[in-house]
Amino acid sequence: MRALLILLLLSTAGMASAQQVSPISVETLKTVDKELSSDAYEGRAPATPAEDKTVAYIIDRFKAAGLKPGNKGSWVQDVPLVEITGSDVSPITFAGGKTPLSLAYRTDMVVGTYRVTPKVALKDSPVVFVGYGINAPERGWNDYAGLDVKGKTVVVLVNDPDWQTPTLDGLFEGRAMTYYGRWTYKFEEAARQGAAAVLIVHDTEPAAYGWGVVQSSWTGPQLELDAKGDHLDQSQAIGWIQLASAKALFASAGKDFDALSAAAKVKGFKAVPLGVTASVSFSNSIRRQASKNVIGVLPGTAAPQDYVLYTAHWDHLGRCDAVKGDDICNGAVDNASGMAGLVALAEANVKAGPARRSIAFMAVTAEESGLLGSQYYAEHPVYPLSHTVGGVNMDSLNVLGLTKDFVVTGAGKSELEDLIVPLAAAQGRVIKPEPNPERGGYFRSDHFSFAKLGVPMLDGGSGEDLVKGGSAAGHAAAEDYVTNRYHKPQDEYDANWDWSGAVADLTLYYRLGRELAEGTSWPNWYKTAEFRVIRDKSRQGQ
User: Residue 213 sits in which domain range?
Assistant: First the structure.
């Protein structure tokens, strides 16, 4: 017991010491977060008047920090977006079953489209249950095998077939979500298969959030990159239905939802036509407008052509479905906190002086709409990806206090993880596995846009083992946030937040970035990582 006490004291002392020498300004964190999450910014929705106010504030903070404009003399990169706002949304009706079924918009289902078209009218589309909607030839799995879904509506389950496995072992990596489990993949694959419509069954645990998040995120204006072809290769209608509504649908079709869901977890599952048809219609208003990524840079000395990158998204949901009369989704944690961290890191690096390599700071747009700002940058980079060393993405900082642990999102992929271990140890912290790998955090923020094109980006942060309160308190606080504030108007700034945990994490990000910027190494993906090949190819001849 005495030995454990000594270790705990040393660990806490190490954390305290790390805080004392941290270059991160707590005052900056508080000021930026409070400002950006105030009602004056109306939830920071892209392509709205609130964007202009947000972008201007970020530029002012970057200038004050001492950065230079990061895009050939400009502070911004235009990101062409198209905004699609549905109206006159009919219920989704199902005919041909034991009893007619009508699902109401918002309460029972949400529906929209990626297609840039003024009207969607789906009528009498045959409905097919395709399990998890996965086509993964490298894993010997195809839920669409032998199936023609052209003109049909597919119903799919969220997450992977083995998401309930307690370990990380399994065909789809067990408890950890793969990209095949992500909702974006479900819609992408269904479109590739020619489906007219896609409905994902919402279930809180495998989805990682409650219906309120789906409702707030999938109603109101929806954004997509403004691309040639107007996304007419996508399904006509995409959406979600409540679990209870799915069970009612299957019962009307004379099917057992629970039995078919269990069967869908087994390799070789065959899709099941439900013998009913679906109909839905809605109108769309269409508006095209460029949003902005904001980029500042601290030019390097000896190798200014090489870049270390820090990213955070500035956007949130804007005006959303009201809760107790409040219809502004302020996004104080998600992600005004990450933006505050980005500004604080810029200040710290400018004070330290230029490094050997350049250090870029990028506030990206439209993360909440599907990582659109970072996707556009990665596909149209200001700095060649072959000369982007790597970096750190920040999405929602810890405002609960110091933790004894640090968690890497999607661990086991890149050599950046090796560099963070000694930095965490210097703070008396240990690296622990993700507490909720089934939530698919690796695919839910902007680092993923860079990873897909080969650039290693670290995404991680404080674990749940709080110095004050332990794992139980940390887990309870994390669950409380997801349940009661995440993507809701209740995600508001709190003057009582404890920023010490955020400072500890930002200190790690600062030291990792300086190590990369002062050095000559090129961190790569591990040989087993799916992004290794594209990184090796991009670095050839450099």
Answer: 84-286
b/e sequence 186-225, b meaning 16+ C-beta within 10 Å: bbbbbbebebbbbbbbbbbebbbbbbbbbbbbbbbbbbbb
Burial class (CB in 10 A: 0-12, 13-18, 19+), 294: buried
Q: Are residues 62 and 206 in the same domain?
A: no
> Half-sphere exposure (CA, 13 Å, Cβ side) for 47?
26
Q: For residues 59 and 76, what is the distance between their CA atoms, to the nearest angstrom?
A: 9
Q: Is residue 150 domain-shared with residue 56, that is, in the same domain?
A: no
The CA distance from 31 to 334, in Å, is 16
Between 338-352 and 500-518, two packed helices, what is the crossing angle to 10 degrees? Answer: 50
Mean pLDDT of the chain: 94
Q: Which tokens hold the place of 218?
A: 């999938």
| CATH number (domain holding residue 516) | 3.40.630.10
**One domain, residues 270 and 188:** yes
In a domain, residue 427? The reply is: yes
Angle between helix 500-518 and 26-36 (nearest 10): 110
Q: What is the mean pLDDT of residues 363-392?
A: 97
Domain-ending residue, one of 286, 306, 335: 286
Domains contained in the chain, number: 2
Joined tokens for residue 523: 């961190």
* 463-499: pLDDT as tens digits: 999 999 999 999 999 999 999 999 999 999 999 999 9
| Band (6; pLDDT cuts 50, 70, 90) | very low
pLDDT at 12 over 60: no
Q: Which residues contact 21 (CB under 8 A, 6 or more apart)?
A: none
pLDDT, position 10: 37
